[in-house]
Design brief:
This protein has 119 residues and is an alpha+beta fold. The protein has 2 domains: 46 residues, no CATH class; 49 residues, no CATH class. Helix content is 18%, strand content 22%. A hairpin with a 6-residue loop joins strand 3 and strand 4. The chain is elongated. The two termini are 33 Å apart. Bound molecules: zinc ion. The site of zinc ion has 8 residues, from loops.
Length: 119
């Protein structure tokens, strides 16, 4: 059975391999989709321009945050829904006052308080 990709006409599409996010017009056509997609599984929207893995449409209603970084410094962060707070764990600043083991312990605590990785 042959399957065709979803129309990649809108939205943002995340690579299942490298995690990069692409607008629809940057996605490549999927090569050999029949061999790469499981029957009944999610249908990819295109192929990653960077690594050629499959990309899937990101649910536009799922809360998402984008962090703008320039020169190693966070410039700003924006979310697609209201009510999301962003905190930055800045290791460079922590190194001035804490040891590596203390920073690692702090990070373990952050991971427990924020158990859902974004990327
Ligand atoms: Zn990729």
């Amino acid at each position: 059975m042959s399957r065709t990709p979803k129309q990649a006409t809108d939205g943002r599409h995340e690579c299942d391999n490298c995690g990069l996010v692409w607008p629809a017009d940057k996605l490549k056509d999927i090569v050999d989709i029949e061999q790469r997609v499981d029957e009944g599984g999610p249908v990819p929207s295109g192929q990653c321009p960077d690594c050629d893995a499959l990309c899937y449409l990101i649910d536009p209603k799922a809360p998402r945050v984008v962090v703008y970084v320039s020169g190693g410094n966070v410039q700003c962060a924006r979310a697609n829904v209201e009510g999301i707070a962003v905190e930055v764990f800045d290791v460079d600043n922590l190194e001035e006052t804490k040891t590596g083991d203390e920073i690692e312990a702090d990070w373990k605590q952050v991971e427990q308080e924020y158990p859902h990785p974004i990327f």
